[in-house]
Design brief:
The protein is an alpha/beta fold. The chain has one domain (44-282): Rossmann fold, CATH 3.40.50. The protein has helices at 56-67, 80-92, 107-121, 146-167, 184-187, 193-213, 232-236, 239-243, 257-268, and strands at 47-51, 71-76, 97-101, 126-129, 176-180, 219-225, 279-282. Strand 4 (126-129), helix 4 and strand 5 form a beta-alpha-beta unit. The longest helix is centred in the middle third of the chain and has 22 residues, at 146-167. It is globular, with a radius of gyration of 17 Å.
């Protein structure tokens, strides 16, 4: 899909949704179908587990991986309907999926999800850590409750570590872990102080784990999105921010989940065989001095 067909900030509406927002309830739906994606069998025979795969970036990655030949485990927490829609979209494109409801804040839940995937697929080659929690606080630091702080860190970094611990015994040379970071983990964002802190932690975790697993030839990388139109935006941001979401980047629009998916394919496939510890920015021109 060419750029002029992508929704711009002007197309966004003053919509807020209760958290966790359902993609199916959004007035302007994210583009997650990869209708024009040209697959090349880059993940043929691979088995992947993707957290937060019910909607947004996770859904687009699940579809892209399936198109490239991978079996995909769709891990999600609350929105049953969205998860089943992801399953339908994967299978309608000829893919194989397995749906798992799990809260990644629980180490046991992560271990169970991985064991379920291994049993269903006969093994595991790729982990995509993508589940995320955010909640904007216009009042700043003092409005962040202990409960919010714990949920942010337990979802966004504890969950990533728990999942990596659970999959590691099943991974071998040539396999991959791909984390989802964020440009705000580099630049900061006053409405999302705790979320920014977790994303910075994910970036550091990626680099440290890449060094740790390098001798085993298991690659660990991170996609760093800029503003991307997902259910988290109307579900967690003030209306004024929703209306102008993405206006600040060079391309003057939010990214779409399907525009992020090819970066995950690169990092999970042999095309990224000499990439580990990388933070791959896909931001529409919202630049960071960090690398």
């Amino acid at each position: 899909m060419s750029d002029p067909e992508r929704p711009t900030a002007k197309d966004m509406v003053d919509q807020t949704l209760p958290y966790p927002a359902k993609q199916s309830d959004m007035a302007v739906l994210p583009q997650t179908s990869l209708t024009n994606y040209k697959a090349a069998g880059k993940l043929a025979g691979k088995r992947a587990i993707i957290t937060g795969a019910d909607s947004g970036i996770g859904r687009a990655v699940a579809i892209a991986f399936a198109l490239e030949g991978a079996k995909v485990a769709i891990v999600y927490n609350e929105n049953d309907g969205d998860a089943q829609e992801t399953r339908r979209m994967v299978e309608d494109r000829g893919g194989t999926s397995h749906v798992i409801k799990a809260d990644v804040r629980s180490k046991q839940a992560c271990e169970d999800a991985v064991a379920d995937t291994v049993q269903a697929f006969g093994g595991l080659d790729i982990l995509v850590n993508n589940a995320a929690f955010q909640k904007a606080q216009e009042g700043g630091l003092l409005d962040i409750t202990e409960a919010q702080l714990r949920r942010s860190f337990e979802t966004n970094i504890f969950g990533y570590i728990f999942m990596a611990q659970a999959v590691l015994p099943h991974l071998k040379a040539g396999d991959a872990i791909v984390n989802t970071g964020s440009i705000v983990g580099m630049t900061g964002e006053p409405l999302l102080i705790d979320y920014c802190a977790t994303k910075g932690a994910i970036h550091a975790f990626t680099r440290a784990l890449a060094l740790s697993l390098g001798t085993q030839k298991i690659r660990v990388n991170c996609v760093v999105p800029g503003p991307v139109w997902t259910p988290n935006i109307p579900g967690t941001m003030p209306e004024s921010e929703v209306e102008t979401f993405g206006h600040e980047v060079a391309l003057a629009r939010p990214g779409q989940p399907e525009e992020l998916a090819p970066a995950y394919v690169l990092l999970a496939s042999d095309d990224g065989s000499f990439m580990t510890g990388s933070l791959v920015q896909v931001t529409g021109g919202k630049l960071s001095t960090d690398s």
